[in-house]
Amino acid sequence: MKDELAKRLVQSLKDAGINFVTYLPETRLSQIVPLIRDDPDMELIAVANESEAITIAAGATLGGKQAAVYMENTGIYTACYPLVTVGKQLGVPLLLVIAYLGGVPDWRNSFLYATIGKHSVPVLDGVGIDHTLLEDGDKLEIKVKDAVRAANSLRGPYALLFAGEFSE
Amino acid sequence: MIRYECLQLLAEKMTDQLVVTSQSGQRIEWSHLSRHEGNLLVGMMGCAIGVATGLALALPHRKVIALDSDGSVLLSLFNLATLGNLRPKNLVVYVFDNGVYSGSRISYPTATSGNTDLAAMAQGAGIKNAQTIRDFEEFKKSGVAALSKNELSFFVCKVEESLLHREIPRPNTDLAENKYTFVRYLERTEEKVIPFIGRG
Lengths: 168, 200
What we know:
heterodimer, A: 168 residues, Rossmann fold, six-stranded parallel β-sheet, 7 helices, 45% helix, B: 200 residues, alpha/beta, two-stranded antiparallel sheet, 18% strand
């Protein structure tokens, strides 16, 4: 991802009200980590597993933060249990910022990632998490804001899948 | 040591603390002992410490308490490493360790009834004040004192297996209802608006 796109993504999160981010880094979107870390209006929390990325972000949301979780799409598989129980069953809004490795629009797709990518959307659909695919910066700010509004309105997780130019 | 007696003691000490419970017998016992609006009865195993950590980070001036079980902590051991690095000063974790999966109805043993020492694991993960409490006198001393300390505390409370939670009534609140009561309580006491809550 080009630096300019990373800056726009972080600014979009901020403009959408995100002020608390849990994360496990990966290869496609990791330029956003130092930008969030250096922003005084955003709290960045490193975790050891995507499951707790979900539960910690959910706790922060209940405490009044507008939280996002940044992770690789492999994290969807790891975090399915808290996504369903805390995210869906308890009904806690969360923005999921997901690097879509191995999806068809992933510019760095290979045999290493293709299977991971193939099942990500069916799993999200299976657990009832709505999602939007972003392949370029067109209307990025609006799409992020729409996703946060959808998460709050639905009272549950909403996923943004990043590929295309974001996987450059 | 009997879990219900420990919870009874804690319930007497509650003022404006936020209490997050995982799914196990103590969730039922706690809801029976405390009707406080600051109770969040998370109905899933392995999620309470994470949710409590998020609350503690979001509200660093409020004391947050997690009531958890050995089975739950074993399900989410990664929490220990994360807590050991974050060290939220306003969080106290009580793990009621009865050494069995009581909910399984056959009381199948957990790893802590074998060779696993959760307090040692927590210390190794970076939680400085992690200790095992083996009797009620020690719980009254160290366990209760942690409520007024400004330090992350992690107590593994060795308790006898008790089936009392099967005899007392389950909480008569829906998960969502409990969540809204909890969040409205926070809105009142924190004098702030929680963004996702509907306002007609």
